[in-house]
């Protein structure tokens, strides 16, 4: 999934953390909700300005970041 048009980073917003469409909801927020057991439907109900595509973009962003993670030798 192409997330570049959905996940934005602005220095003055939420400390420059990756956010959804310039909103104050971060990728971390959405991942934390999912990790705590919330379903996509529950997230969308609590945050009606988010979309299913926004949630998938957060997951794609996290997967891409994980893929690029370098393991540093100790």
3D structure, described in words:
With 74 residues, the protein is mainly α. The protein has a single domain (7-67), classed as Winged helix-like DNA-binding domain superfamily/Winged helix DNA-binding domain (Arc Repressor Mutant, subunit A), CATH 1.10.10. It has 3 helices and 2 strands. The chain has a two-stranded antiparallel ribbon with strand order 1-2. The longest helix has 17 residues, at 52-68. The termini are far apart. The model has no long low-confidence stretch (mean pLDDT 93).
Considering the chains and any ligands shown, give keywords for the structure.
single chain, 74 residues, mainly alpha, Arc Repressor Mutant, subunit A, two-stranded antiparallel ribbon, 3 helices, 45% helix, globular
**Rg computed from alpha carbons, rounded to a whole number of angstroms:** 13 Å
So, the CATH homologous superfamily? Winged helix-like DNA-binding domain superfamily/Winged helix DNA-binding domain
Mean pLDDT figure: 93
Instruction: Please give the largest β-sheet.
Output: 2 strands, antiparallel
CATH class: Mainly Alpha
Question: What's the number of helices?
Answer: 3
Q: How many separate domains?
A: 1
CATH T-level topology: Arc Repressor Mutant, subunit A
Order of strands, widest sheet: 1-2
How many DSSP E strands? Answer: 2
Which percent range describes the beta-strand content? 5-15%
Order of helices and strands: EEHHH
Shape type = globular
From the 3D coordinates, which CATH architecture would you assign?
Orthogonal Bundle
